[in-house]
Amino acid sequence: xxxxxxxxxxxxxxxxxxxxxxxxxxxxxxxxxxxxxxxxxxxxxxxxxxxxxxxxxxxxxxxxxxxxxxxxxxxxxxxxxxxxxxxxxxxxxxxxxxxxxxxxxxxxxxxxxxxxxxxxxxxxxxxxxxxxxxxxxxxxxxxxxxxxxxxxxxxxxxxxxxxxxxxxxxxxxxxxxxxxxxxxxxxxxxxxxxxxxxxxxxxxxxxxxxxxxxxxxxxxxxxxxxxxxxxxxxxxxxxxxxxxxxxxxxxxxxxxxxxxxxxxxxxxxxxxxxxxxxxxxxxxxxxxxxxxxxxxxxxxxxxxxxxxxxxxxxxxxxxxxxxxxxxxxxxxxxxxxxxxxxxx
Length: 344
Prior knowledge:
By secondary structure, this protein is an alpha+beta fold. The protein folds into three domains: 7-81, Orthogonal Bundle (Arc Repressor Mutant, subunit A); 89-129 and 228-338, Beta-Lactamase (2-Layer Sandwich); 133-226, Enolase-like, domain 1 (2-Layer Sandwich), CATH 3.30.390.60. It has 13 helices and ten strands. Strands 7-3-10-9-8 form a five-stranded antiparallel beta sheet, sandwiched between helices. The chain has a three-stranded antiparallel beta sheet with strand order 4-5-6. Strands 1-2 form a two-stranded antiparallel ribbon. It is globular and about 70 Å long. The two termini are 31 Å apart.
């Protein structure tokens, strides 16, 4: 449970995060006093900084330095402090040019413009979900695990594993398989990926196993998303424009090496539940992002039965307002082009 912060602590934390995003240098008590707490003494602000540091929100690089935000601070900022910021008109005009593009050209253009406007590495993961499901199979491996398999009219997807309780018997597995086939056979994979689990359907004998059904659905979604994914990137070298990487060839090499792992990047960008319009912000290794980085993604439609995720990878010291503004605007434009909801 996150301990509530006083208004003054919230103001200070906001000032430190915003100041560090802007300057990449530790923020001093004097800077905070000048920016938002002119009625407080430097000593009072220093005491609050020390308290925030002891709570895990701030880090002091060395004794005479100001403070920089921790992963916990960035997460609190994104979830509780940050306000929406409208995009400048020139940025909106650049994004609007995507309306004249289609197909692969649209995807490449999107990646290029997002990278240009955010100054981070842009990633578009396209998933062709036009296959029709012909069967779903649940295979008991007899070791407390079950293999889940999707068969479509063009491929077999079988990389999903689910832990099952000991009392989930063979007859129950057969009934579960029958239930899944009754709902999904004949539908496109895209219908399945955007499916919200209907707990009401698991009634009677299955009521105690709602969690198992939910796991089966989640694994099947993940297997569907991981098959047939196409990754487009732009702006990988933008990372050198940011202090954390411009001053450290080791950090830059590590980042570029991570970006070469397309399968890992695709999974990172599609691990969001698959719901159109959903926005995911992953901050640092704790959120399973690239160490020292943040990943911001949004789920979009890219064509008929073709969904995907678009977003950016950049330093944890990311301009989250700008990134979220760009991605929200892109979602709106794609919705207009394709007539898809995209969460709008």
